[in-house]
Amino acid sequence: MLTRLPNILTFTRILAIPVLIGLLLFVQDPLGSWLAFAAYTYACVTDFFDGYLARAWHQQSAFGRFLDPIADKLLVAAVLLVLVAIQRFSGLTVLPAAVILCREILVSGLREFLAEVRVSVPVTTLAKWKTTIQMLALGFLLVGPAGPDFGPLSTTEVGIIGLWGAAVLTLVTGYDYLVAGLKHIRETDSAPASKRKPKQPRVAAQKN
């Protein structure tokens, strides 16, 4: 399982999380923030290359399918929580962070159910935009006060604006996933009892 490079990259993305947290909490700024940003950048880069290499080298696996979304969600949740802990943002700005976390939990639950009934949930273009804006916003927030100004806005303010934008797209895409999921839930509940038995799991070609 961990002998394939795509899976190794995914696993190192998880290992980068405690490193990132430790740098933010125990290394003084500006060095701590920039090193944490470097660890975060590595995690984001591996998020692209593990899937790309798995497809290019035909090394897609059930283990990669299991581990990859977990690594993504752990990274986002850990970064948001540690940013709140060090008060990189506070007050009303905690709201978009909470929206993003709740959406991740919602989609994870829906995907788990839909996997049992062997229904795939395709990633929409809007969801890809949400992820891109979210990752960029978190990067700006990690650098925070150590970063430069962008005209009238500081690095932290750019990150906060991006976080609000990601939260808005999170609500839209989360609603789309919820509607699609509820449709299949209703169909499953209304099906004859003999057809409700979960089918045997089938390993599908996924990201890695």
Describe, in plain words, how this protein is organized in 3D.
- The chain has helices at 5-26, 31-56, 62-85, 94-116, 125-143, 155-190.
- The chain is mainly α and 208 residues long.
- It has a single domain (5-195), classed as Four Helix Bundle (Hemerythrin (Met), subunit A), CATH 1.20.120.
- The longest helix is centred in the C-terminal third of the chain and has 36 residues, at 155-190.
- The protein is globular.
Quick structural overview:
With 208 residues, this protein is an all-alpha fold. The protein has six helices and no strands.
Task: Supply the key terms.
single chain; 208 residues; mainly alpha; Four Helix Bundle (Hemerythrin (Met), subunit A); 6 helices; 72% helix; globular; disordered C terminus
